[in-house]
Amino acid sequence: MSSEYIGYIALTISVSSFLPVIYTVYKTGKTNNFPIQGLILAIIGNLVWFTYGIYRDARANIISGSIYFLMYSYIIYKKYKE
User: Fold this and answer.
1) Choosing a second label site near 82 at 20 to 30 A (CA), which of 6, 9, 25, 47?
2) Most distant CA pair in the chain: distance in Å?
3) Could you tell me where the DSSP H helices lie in 29-58?
4) What is the reported pTM?
């Protein structure tokens, strides 16, 4: 098994583990458990992983960085929409 497949497995598990959180935010609209500082740090961290993926041509990193950026951005959007 190539390391790229391991990256895709990690991507699938990681994103799947966060989907219930996104679903809960979507259904309830509540984001008070997410401090903005933590969300901003998470976005920055995922942008760094995204950039690393580009430099290393690691598609799993690029995809996961993009997906997490969108998920965290959605939470921030809902947070300020409250």
Assistant:
1) 47
2) 46
3) 36-56
4) 0.85
Taking a C-beta distance cutoff of 8 angstroms, is the pair 14, 66 a contact?
no
CATH of the domain at 49: 1.20.1280.290
**Tally of structural domains, the chain:** 1
Q: How far apart are the C-alpha atoms of 17 and 65, rounded to whole Å?
A: 15
Read off φ and ψ for residue 56, nearest 5 degrees. -95, 0
- Structure tokens, 9: 């497995």
Take residue 35 and report the two structure tokens written for it. Answer: 């401090």
Full pLDDT tens readout for the chain, 82 residues:
677 888 899 899 999 999 999 999 999 999 988 999 999 999 999 999 899 999 999 999 999 999 999 999 999 999 988 6
Q: Which domain holds residue 22?
A: 3-81
